[in-house]
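subagent[fold] <- orchestrator: predict structure for attached chain, return tokens only, no commentary.
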Amino acid sequence: MSVRLTRRSALFASAGAAAALPKVAWAQDAANDDAALADAVDAYVRQCLEAWPENPGLSVAVVKDGRPVLTRGYGRKAMDRPAPVDERTLFAVASNTKAVTCAALAILVDEGKVKWDEPVRTHLPGFALSKPELNDLITVRDLVSHRIGFGLGAGDLLFWPNSDRTRAEIMAVVDKVPIEDQFRARYHYCNLMFIVAGEVVAAASGMPWETFVQTRILDRLGMADTLPVMVNADPAKCALPHGRVGPPLRYQGPMTRIGDSVQEVWNWTSAGAAGGFMTNAVDWARWMAVQLANGALPDGTRLFSEAQGREMWRPNIIVGSSAGPTPDLPGRAIAATYAAGWQVMDYRGERMITHGGGSPGGISGTVLLPGRNVGFSYFSNAEESLLLRALRSGIADVVMGPTRNGPAFDWIADSKRLETEGNARSIAAAAEIDAKQAAGAPPSLPGSAYAGNWRDPWYGDVTIQARDTQLWLAFTRSPALKGPLEPYDGDTFRTRFPDTREEDVFVTFELEESRPVRATMKAVSPDADFSYDFHDLRLTRV
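subagent[fold] -> orchestrator:
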């Protein structure tokens, strides 16, 4: 479990933990008319950026009653370059893509080509899982509801960090990825099944997922700047990725630009249906408007039927529940659920439809308040997750104005408090990791004994080479995950990847008759992003 809010919070943290703090004036009269709403949101965003001055750039869109009332950029595309962010600057929005994949399925449902509750094998006869008893039971709805039983982020190493695998290669090993929980019992966020959902779109429509999305959604909505996948994105038009790469750990240290392009650190072409989109405030405002209109377009035609609009917002699995808001936790949901590509929850007594997205060097979010016919989005080109928390809940309070349930709340101050506390825990954890290595026992065997080719059923090969006095580890399908392997404690070793944008890994060897025969892994840092699912690997010596 991470000791601080990282990409995990961008995807499924509710506007929760908080302490009672002073009332803020910006929230009082925000929702009276469009101009006042735009001014109030703009003023609040600027307050947030003052509190996080190292965040290079941000883009915000607000729609109300089917119209954009604010589409604006803030800051710079890159911290070391003068080009400003504007309303057409492209951002990687990662898992906000999932709702578009579900809309593609909804269009096909309207056309009678797909049914939400039919088996996936209707469209993909070769679809199989590591639990064969589930093969005929998994439905299209299951794919987009995070309820099949995979662990958090299971299989993500197939495409995170950037991999050289094709979509077909990913699909070929789906049946090897472990399933740790019971079918439909609990919520576990799973990118892998959205890749499968994209292949259902392809099979039912006769065209690749990205072609269907382009021609049947983006072109119809006039989202001319949006790209389904980022591989051909022009860096000059994009907000470039930023993050903190230590020391002592990832997400600590000074802010730095971590790529000359988005695709350098985030190329999910093979996993596009799970998180491939690049878009801007102008285009995404159109997307939010059609969502709030339940599929209706301004010209009177429909992208999808009203029935399918309701279906995509119908909860399919419980994410979490609580006793509800308190003075110290004013945004805590009674129930947070996952529908089809959207999280559906209560916020201050109203229904909120929301989703987040996190990529290396960027975080994004979309929030819809159907009862007010208002939606807003925020895209950042840095990994300042608690800034995004302040934006999400703070802008929602601006939209609700004085009619919201509960007193005003200072989300900026509270998020800064959580950030300070989380950073302190992270620094302490890093010191503990180093201390354990300094006191660690020596390996049982000479270093060369651990060298060889190691294979996992779903990931493939990891090699360990003996180079003079040093071991060198390489994930064969993940170019960035290569580096020295050094003793940590007994038969546990750790990496120090030269590419400091990546998370280091512990490797623990199991010996039989004084020979290493099996190995397991886990991330070194407690803050490591869940998509570094090293812990799902079960390596055996080839």
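orchestrator: received. Logging for downstream: The longest helix spans residues 411-438. The chain has a mean pLDDT of 94.
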